[in-house]
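Q: For a teaching session next week I want to show students how multiple molecules come together into a single three-dimensional assembly. I've collected the sequence lines for a complex. Could you give me the predicted structure tokens for the whole thing so I can convert them for display?
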Amino acid sequence: MHIPGMSRRELLAAMIAAPVVAAGKLPTDAVAVAKCPSYDEDQVALLGQMFGQLGGLGRLVKNKTVTVKVNLTGSPALKFQGKPLGVTHYTHPKQIGALAHLMDKAGAKRVRFVESAWATAGPLEEYMLDSGWNVRQLKSAATSVEFVNTNGAGDSKKYVKFAVPGGGWVFPSYHLNKVYDETDVFVSLAKLKDHATCGVTLAMKNIFGITPAAIYGDDAGEHEPNEAPTKGRVNTCHFGKRQPASIAAPEKDPASSREPGHRMPRITAELAAARPIHISIVDGIETVTGGEGPWIRGLKYVQPGVMIVGTNPVTTDTVSTAIMGYNPRDLKGQGVFARCDNTLLLAEQLGVGSADLKQIEVRGVKIADAMFRFAG
Amino acid sequence: MLFAFAVLATAADWVPARWNSADPKLLELVAQTPVNCLLVERQNWSAGFSQEAARARVATLGVVRPGDDLKELPERAKAAGLAGIVFEGAFEEAALGLARAALKDSRLAAVELGPRTRIRWDGDDPVIGTHQGVWPGINATDDDGKAKAAPSGAPWIDTNTGFLRFARSLAKGEVWIGNVPPKGSVIPVARYLQAIGDAAIVGARWVVALDADFEKRLLEREEAAIKDWKRIGDHLRFFEEHKEWRTFEPFAQLAIVQDVDSGGLISGGILDMITVKHTPVRPVPGRKLDDGKMAGSKMAVNVDPAALPDSQKEVLRRFTRGGGTLLTAPPGWRFPPQRANQITLDKEDIEKLDTIWKEVNSMTGRRNLGARLFNVASMLSNLSGPAAGKPLVLQLVNYSDYPVENITAHVIGNFTKAQLLEPGAPPRKVNVYENEEGTGIEIDKVSSLAAVVLE
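A: Of course. Below is the structure for the complete assembly, covering every listed component.
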């Protein structure tokens, strides 16, 4: 067996570390696809209909604490062509309001919107205000809505260890803010985007943002977390130039590849396995192609007009990747994964779900009818 | 002569612009704006033009520069019907003194637009100023001049506001900044509006100066240029219609004690670093430091402790005894000495300043020291008010090429209504609500400049 771009040693290590689950036993949850030309459309009706196609939201969230990881990547100060962040590379606030309302209506006990905000451990509400969101309106969308910045320990002052099933490739476990442990239903509310390092960023890549910069940040303490982080996580995670604060597990093999295209897909897959995602929502109504944010050159604003929702992150991301016009099973060196490993296949190896389109039922709009080729 | 005297009496109200034409017919363009003072180059000094300008209540000031012949300057100025002379650049002191004395005897106005380091803070000039300024706008390049490419924080805004805040706190009269567009550049009109706002939100006036291309098109009465000129006029008018704002004091609980030798004349220094964070700040020139200047402040930064005499050190001791938090530069730290033509900091200087900046940042943190603003990364602001306290005015300049939507401000104090004022637009009501910091306001959109009046 040969995977382009992967050394024999790395391949062996991967196979040993991660149990390869027989394809037939992988979760193959159905994925709902819908067309939606703009955020001016009724987002409550749209998401409500899509959850209905998946068996209803009530069965998933009734009397549960729901934690929704939104995508607020990069500083809110960086806007692409002056457009609101929600129509380019951030989660759109209307979807947050709609989701909070639907969760509330479906009987959720508590809804928490979370993000490890860029370079700050300050209140997420303030970060959202800096993003141009009306937080007061969002708070009133449901009876119990909270916003938590998980870049540090926050009010709980505690982190919880999440072990990677099978032991992981890069890190054997992750220390995360306690809210991720106080979660009955974990939702990834992601954006449909290309990604400079991982090829695509969808429901799974979105949750890289659950790692606290207090521990995994470039200015994290050597031993103790830095509860006032001011930097990102590039040196620790992308490049492996330093280890996380030692309250968390260090890398398994500091001699392994330091290439971001090797590390980040693995870290993403590990996180998806360690902190399972129950609902994956990928927003491709309006977004950008060519990268994940305005710091990437060649970015382009587009309106694919599509929404993808599923109850398994791998199946949802697989369908999303196909809708972007990419082959979800491409290996490193191929297609959108030209310079990185394929996170979908890595997550598949960890048993999170199937990345095989043939195994995944698509409900609503067909992939071919929803397709928007990101590569142009 | 009579006319010149009349203009001198209103020098504080001059709205200046550089004007490169002696064609009286083109004064019609000036009349479309609040500009009432033209800075005219020597080749355009003309009695006919000045007379027509005077009829339109526009003063003409002749510009002279180092190297120009200053002999018989009053006579030549009078012959050209000028209301006064602008000395632009670094003149030899003795020659300048003689020329100024001669002008005074002839009751002609003198405005100096010299280097920042030579501004006459203790003089009686109704207008002080400088020709030195950065061209305001978002600086989207890194230290190597390449476009920034990282998911990191807010872009840096090149601005003169820090220097102008300091200048306004020290000057007796009006403050002009006479910076011109970068040579050879063609500037979109939005950048001119930013330059106007950059000076005006802190109570100063930018001497309007057009790039060569715009100027040519305007003087040829090209339609698009006239449209842009009208926008410039609208924006100048906006501030002239609210002259009272110039008299307002900063509404800020953070005081920066510094003087000309400790960074007050620098752009991109401590004051700018603080205002880029939208932390309201009150500059207190060291030489003016007294208990009254510190009233209302809860935090203070003393940039150059060694420069203060004992009596003023005692003022700061009283401030801290009264519960104020004082941050002083580390022992032995001095503000980097300013070179003759230096108006911004070198990389090395910034690194030195970083020592104190980190402390300031840590001290202010997320505290509300007057107002906290959100979604304003591409903007600068100034919060000020009259001695009586109300109304407060929050002025905003947008330095990006796009309108900014959904701005939130949390202002200390209780306010029940607010209006958004913008150039060339009717006032709009702003949503106001109580919050734990005092009053929250929500501004839906700001294009170039705006002011929120809180009552």
